[in-house]
């Protein structure tokens, strides 16, 4: 059997046609019809009022913090259990990451720990909706209100996830998506900043386009802030436009994949994260938990020997050299020790899924 990758984007004929169209018409940089088409289709799907494309998800997060005017020494609460970009973006603007632990069962930011760490210096909370799951957003919104802080939703892994029927990204002040090759829809590299606040998105557009003064379009080469070149190309947007149009099919298949693993993996030894009430999960990557780090390592090795690619869950960021902290974030460490991400891409075939489940289940047969 051929190797099974962790992820592989689904590329159809429409994507190929759209890219050819960009090449034929020579609209290959960040101007061209597909940018607006993609942004408008994204707005329709997420129901977030203002959306603007970016070069990747990390740039999108950086732009969120620039738009909120996060500055030197502003404290930003962020979980240590997340992807590195959710934390690096704080440093890009000179802010101070204040790490919090996560809930083990949901893998998401711990609201209890936020309450312990929040202070007058806190300017914002970054909430990454990891693996498509979410925390109890109703509780988080109460905290946001009580302490009057900004909420940035890192939706890089959450396209297609809804909480109480609203797409994630609608709850905070501003949010960022990623369209890396392994994401639910992909543009190769790419991202999107979205907000229901048009002033924030205006600032994002200003910053992403070299600080060009967008209100005075006639005055060329006039820049009113120090900006960045964080624009998406028309080629990337043409792929994104094709993908977002058939996202419901992609999500259906991902739900099927999750349910297949859930039904077929031995539930005595393999656990799944829990979902908060009100969440409709996109199941970006299927995460499972074993009872010990040792078992996790053995099963991971066996899968690799069988040419099945996996990923560990994130290493807590406070353990990395640039962010080293002595605190003991016990759940974050356990999440990394016990968790494993399984192949979850839409083209996975049933026989491949069966093979993965069989290899995992076979390991536990000896415990009977
Ligand atoms: C939670 C999270 N935040 C941010 C990012 C950054 O996105 P990108 O890789 O597009 O820069 C990613 C994706 O890789 C992610 O998983």
Walk me through what this model shows.
The protein has twelve helices and 13 strands. Helix 1 packs antiparallel against helix 8 (234-245), helix 3 packs across helix 4 (85-92) and helix 9 (247-264) runs parallel beside helix 12. It is of the alpha/beta class and 368 residues long. It has helices at 13-25, 33-46, 57-67, 85-92, 111-117, 137-147, 198-208, 234-245, 247-264, 293-305, 330-338, 350-365; strands at residues 50-54, 75-79, 96-100, 122-128, 150-154, 162-163, 166-167, 174-178, 191-195, 279-280, 286-289, 311-312, 339-342. It has a seven-stranded mixed β-sheet, with helices on both faces. It folds into two domains: 13-245, 3-Layer(aba) Sandwich (Aspartate Aminotransferase, domain 2); 247-365, Aspartate Aminotransferase, domain 1 (Alpha-Beta Complex). The radius of gyration is 21 Å and the shape is globular. It binds pyridoxal-5'-phosphate (PLP). Pyridoxal-5'-phosphate (PLP) binds next to helix 3 and helix 4.
Question: Which features characterize this protein?
Answer:
alpha/beta; 368 residues; Aspartate Aminotransferase, domain 2; three-stranded antiparallel sheet; 2 domains; Aspartate Aminotransferase, domain 1; 13 strands; seven-stranded mixed sheet; globular; binds pyridoxal-5'-phosphate
């Amino acid at each position: 059997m051929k190797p099974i990758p962790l992820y592989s984007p689904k590329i159809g004929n429409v994507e190929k046609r759209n890219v050819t169209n960009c090449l034929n018409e020579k609209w290959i940089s960040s101007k061209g019809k597909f940018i607006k088409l993609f942004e408008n289709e994204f707005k329709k799907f997420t129901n977030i009022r203002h959306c603007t494309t970016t070069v990747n998800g990390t740039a999108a997060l950086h732009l969120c913090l620039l738009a909120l005017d996060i500055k030197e020494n502003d404290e930003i609460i962020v979980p240590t259990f997340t992807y590195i970009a959710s934390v690096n973006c704080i440093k890009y603007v000179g802010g101070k990451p204040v790490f919090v632990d996560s809930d083990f069962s949901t893998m998401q930011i711990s609201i209890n720990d936020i309450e312990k760490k929040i202070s007058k210096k806190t300017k914002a909370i970054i909430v990454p909706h990891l693996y498509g799951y979410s925390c109890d957003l109703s509780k988080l919104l109460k905290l946001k209100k009580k302490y009057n802080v900004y909420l940035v939703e890192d939706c890089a892994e959450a396209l297609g996830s809804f909480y109480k029927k609203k797409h994630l990204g609608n709850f905070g002040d501003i949010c960022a998506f990623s369209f890396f090759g392994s994401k639910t829809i992909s543009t190769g590299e790419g991202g999107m900043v979205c907000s229901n606040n048009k002033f924030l998105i205006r600032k994002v557009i200003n910053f992403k386009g070299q600080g060009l003064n967008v209100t005075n379009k006639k005055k060329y080469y006039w820049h009113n802030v120090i900006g960045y070149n964080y624009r998406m190309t028309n080629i990337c947007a043409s792929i994104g436009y094709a993908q977002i149009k058939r996202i419901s099919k992609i999500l259906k298949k991902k739900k099927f994949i999750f349910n297949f693993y859930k039904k077929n993996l031995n539930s005595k030894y393999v656990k799944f994260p829990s979902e908060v009430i009100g969440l409709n999960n996109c199941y970006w990557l299927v995460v499972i938990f074993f009872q010990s780090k040792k078992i996790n390592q053995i099963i991971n090795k066996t899968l690799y020997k069988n040419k099945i690619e996996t990923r560990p869950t994130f290493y807590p960021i406070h353990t990395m050299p640039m962010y080293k902290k002595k605190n003991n974030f016990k759940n974050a460490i356990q999440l990394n020790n016990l968790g494993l991400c399984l192949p979850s891409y839409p083209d996975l075939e049933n026989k491949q899924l069966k093979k993965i489940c069989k290899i995992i289940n076979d390991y536990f047969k000896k415990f009977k």
